[in-house]
Design brief:
The chain has 11 helices and 14 strands. It has about 375 residues and is an alpha/beta fold. It catalyses: (R)-malate + NAD(+) = pyruvate + CO2 + NADH.
C-alpha cells in the first residue's frame, strides 16, 4: 500500500512538528466496553513509539461517541460527525455495543454509519500466529497460518436494503436484500488481487456461495473471473464458503489471501483469529483506497462487557491495528518496529489470559513500551 502524501500539522503531544517532518492527526473513538481500555493502551504505545523514534509526530483527539452517548442523546453521532472526522488522517476505533442496546442499533448507529459514507470499502484483516502464541490446530506450525482476508465492506449482505411489514401480525414479513454492484465488486476484486500480488506467494482464494445464491453470488464469481485477467501473475481459485471453513482448519498452509463478501468475510475472519490463537490479537483496517477519506482502524474483538473493567483485556489487537494504521500512513519502519516489539513481548511470556498468560492489560502495555525503547535505541534494529 502506497504511503500517503506529506501531511503537516502541530503535535499536541510532542510539540510543533519540525520542518519537513511528517505529523498525523488521529481521531480516537474508544466506544464501549473494553474498547475504551485497549484504545487508551494503544494511544500510550503510539505516543511512546513516536517519542522513541523521533521521526514523526502524532496528535490525538478523542470523541465520546458510544452507547453512553446514545443513551444520553438518542443517537450515536452528531449531525456533523462526518465533517469532524474528515479532518483527520486516520481514525482509531475501539468497539461498539452494550448489553442494554440492541446490536443492530449500535452497529448501524456508529461503526457502519462511519464506514459506509466514508467509502471504507476494503476491510483488511491480516492473521498469523505470533511468536509466543499457539494455534488450537495441533499440527499447525507458525508459518502455516499467515493470511490476509479482504472483506467487501460497503454492500453485499450488509447493504442495509430491506424492511419489515405487518409488524406483530401472523403474516409479518421481513426482508434483507443483498446488493452486488458491478462497481462495488470490481473495486474490491481489484484491491484483493493487488493485495495478493504484493505478497510473496501471489495467491488468492475467492470465496463464494454461488451454488445456492444464484444471482448475487454468480455475479460475484463473474466479476472475479473478469478481474483475474488483469493479474496474470496471481494464482487464484474459488471456494464455497462452507468448504472454506474446513480448508482453513484442515489445510491452513494452502491459503494466503482471501476475498469474500461482507457477511462471509465477517464470519471467516473471526474463525481465522481463533485459529491463530485468540480473537484478542486480531486487527482490522477499514480502508478507503482512494484516500479521499480517512481510513478507520479497529481491533475486531468487540466490546466484551463480560471482562470490562477487570483490566484483563488483550491490547495486542489494538497494537497490531495501530501498526497497520502507521503502515497505511507511510510509516512502515515504525509499524515493523512496533510489531517486533509486540512479538518479543508475547514470546517472552507476557500475555493476557486469552493467550494462556496471567498478565494484565497495563502489564502488556508497559512491556511493549519498554521493548520499543530497547529496539529504538539499538544501533542495528532488526525489523520484523
Amino acid at each position: 500500500m502506497a504511503p500517503s502524501a506529506t501531511i503537516t500539522a502541530t503535535n499536541g503531544t510532542t510539540g510543533v512538528a519540525a520542518p519537513g517532518r511528517q505529523s498525523y492527526n488521529i481521531a480516537l473513538i474508544p466506544g464501549d466496553g473494553i474498547g475504551i481500555e485497549v484504545i487508551h493502551a494503544g494511544q500510550v504505545v503510539l505516543q511512546h513509539l513516536a517519542r522513541c523514534l523521533d521521526t514523526f509526530d502524532l496528535k490525538f483527539e478523542e470523541f465520546e461517541w458510544s452507547s453512553a452517548y446514545y443513551k444520553k442523546h438518542g443517537r450515536y453521532l452528531p449531525d456533523d460527525a462526518l465533517d469532524q472526522v474528515r479532518k483527520f488522517n486516520a481514525i482509531l476505533f475501539g468497539a461498539v455495543g452494550a448489553p442494554d442496546v440492541p446490536d443492530h442499533i449500535s452497529l448501524w448507529g456508529l461503526r457502519l454509519a462511519l464506514c459506509q459514507p466514508l467509502q471504507q470499502y476494503a476491510n483488511v484483516r491480516p492473521t498469523r500466529i505470533l511468536r509466543g502464541t499457539t494455534s488450537p490446530l495441533s499440527n499447525c506450525a507458525r508459518g502455516d497460518l499467515d493470511w490476509v482476508i479482504v472483506r467487501e465492506n460497503s454492500e453485499g449482505e450488509y447493504a442495509g436494503h430491506g424492511g419489515t411489514s405487518h409488524i406483530n401480525q401472523e403474516w409479518s414479513v421481513a426482508t434483507e436484500v443483498s446488493i452486488f454492484t458491478q462497481h462495488g465488486c470490481e473495486r474490491i476484486m481489484r484491491f484483493a488481487f493487488s493485495t495478493a500480488q504484493s505478497r510473496p506467494r501471489k495467491k488468492l482464494t475467492v470465496v463464494t456461495k454461488s451454488n445456492a445464491q444464484r444471482n448475487g453470488m454468480v455475479f460475484w464469481d463473474h466479476v472475479a473471473a473478469k478481474v483475474a485477467k488483469e493479474f496474470p501473475d496471481v494464482e487464484w481459485d474459488k471456494m464455497l464458503v462452507d468448504a472454506m471453513t474446513t480448508r482453513m482448519v484442515l489445510k491452513p498452509s494452502s491459503i494466503d489471501t482471501i476475498v469474500a463478501t461482507n457477511l462471509h468475510a465477517d464470519i471467516l475472519s473471526d474463525l481465522a483469529a481463533a485459529l491463530a490463537g485468540s480473537i484478542g490479537i486480531a486487527p482490522t483496517s477499514n480502508l478507503d483506497p482512494t484516500r479521499k477519506n480517512p481510513s478507520m482502524f479497529e481491533p475486531i474483538h468487540g466490546s466484551a462487557f463480560d471482562i470490562t473493567g477487570l483490566g484483563v483485556a488483550n491490547p495486542v489487537a489494538t497494537f497490531w491495528t495501530s501498526a497497520e494504521m502507521l503502515r497505511w500512513l507511510g510509516q512502515a519502519e515504525a509499524a515493523e518496529l512496533l510489531m517486533l516489539a509486540v512479538e518479543n513481548v508475547t514470546e517472552g511470556g507476557i500475555k493476557t489470559q486469552d493467550l494462556g498468560g496471567k498478565s494484565k492489560t497495563v502489564e502488556v502495555t508497559e512491556a511493549v513500551c519498554k521493548e520499543i525503547e530497547k529496539l529504538a535505541s539499538s544501533p542495528s534494529k532488526k525489523m520484523y
